[in-house]
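ingest -> validate -> predict -> emit
validate: passed (alphabet ok, no gaps, 535 aa)
predict: started
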Amino acid sequence: MARDIGVCGTGEIDRQDWPFDPRDDLSGVMLPGWAQVAFFRIAVFPNTFDVGSIVTTVERSGSVYNTLPYSVTFQEVQPEIEGVRWEGIERGDLLLPFEFRAVTLVIEPIGPPNINENQLFTFDTEDTASVLVRALAVTLFPLVPDWSGGIRERLSYLTQVMRSRTGNEQRVQLRRYPRRRIEYRAVARNARESSVMDGLLWGRQGSFLGVPQWFDSARLSAPASSGDTTLQVESAEWRQFYPDGVGVVFRGPDDYEAFGVEEVQEDAIITSDGLEFSWPAGTPVYPVRTCYFPDSQGVRQITSAIETIDVEFEADELPWPEPVDSTDGEYRGRPLLMREPNRAQAVSAEYNRDLIELDNRTGQISRVDRAGRPFLVRTHEHVFSSKRDVWWFKAFVESLKGRLKSLWVPTWQRDMALLSSVPTNSATIHVTGPGYSGLFDFQDGRRDLVIIHCDGTRWLRRIESASQRADGTNDLVLDSDLSGTRVIAPEDVWKIMFLEHVRLSGDTVEFHWRTNEVATVEVSFRTVIEEEGAE
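emit:
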């Protein structure tokens, strides 16, 4: 017969004292008795220090209790946490049997913004004592921005580009995550806020601050009460809240509460601790990022109480979230960006050639066009009016890693017009334009087309051959049929554009937030030669 039992106690147990037949097939576990729970160990009381949000140095009292029947010598606390120290006990201190030692936990807001760590007290024996330290060490920069100038968010990658004599490129990523800068004009509206600004610059310019991401606000959809760990918000999607990060409920520079983020849901933010205060519905909630002042920071003192400061914070580096699925698809193994630029601003295009001039100063100058083609730098401005669109474009930029990866972008010009109807199952189109073969010669940037129908249908095609008619128009033969089972008339086509194979012209992309919902971004693309294995 087999039975599961629990044996509770200390020391050895004589088989004759067992309340069952010793011949039974026994299995079980040894359970600690009261003496083993209360004694024969080293304990830290309390075993959890939950400090909550701190903006200045805080202290919490506790004790170390040696319940062992022998003395032990204290060694150290592991792991070390910047800004966290224990007073009242030092390396080499002797703890006698059954000795209480009063200790003090000191936390300064100079370390990681969100502390949630088990620390281990070690001794010269194998005995240890564990304590959980939890704190939200954030010095918030609470001065609100002047939205008349907006907020600029700049993402900077780092890529090494090596070009051959013919214009082909090899590109190498040098920075895993983008560096992020946030620029705006902050306003101190009274003497108290001016004093806060002076104190932060004096005491924290060389360290980090918690800066609310003013353009990523979410509003409480329901009141939040003291002790609540769930904040119901209108939407937490497409905002920079992330687990183990920091957020803040904010109504003003002197009326806010920071909290640790444990989980982010579609319409709720789960905090790591309960709120200290109650907040009404509609109160803004902002994600907070760790940022740093530059080494030189100017302040405009407009009056004796009113000041402005043009801040340029450098934010900490964090892994970027997973990209949102692109609806633009791919073309020939590269991503395709089909977002039309803002035509309220002119689209600039600069033609650059890699020319070598040979000049002996006595005769005619000779020029060698090494690539035999221009490289265009085309600048677009895009307007995004929703959080999801901004998030999508940021993720798209992240997928490119700055100048590292190439993509396809239309010129967004009416590069040619359809002159004759395209019959069914035909791959030939009759279009306007200069002599294609003589000028473009099937080069990258002028051999791929996107044809957009008025109903939104688009065709991506490569030009295989071309011939010029007597009237100067062109017949282009594409790599596959265009129309399928329908006839396409000239009036059915909205636009025919060249597709250019491009990369970002620089490693920096800047988002200009006009409001906390609307952002514009000016992005420059440089044409590159399509070459397999260049990335």
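The chain has four domains: 2-37, 39-137, 151-315, 330-527.
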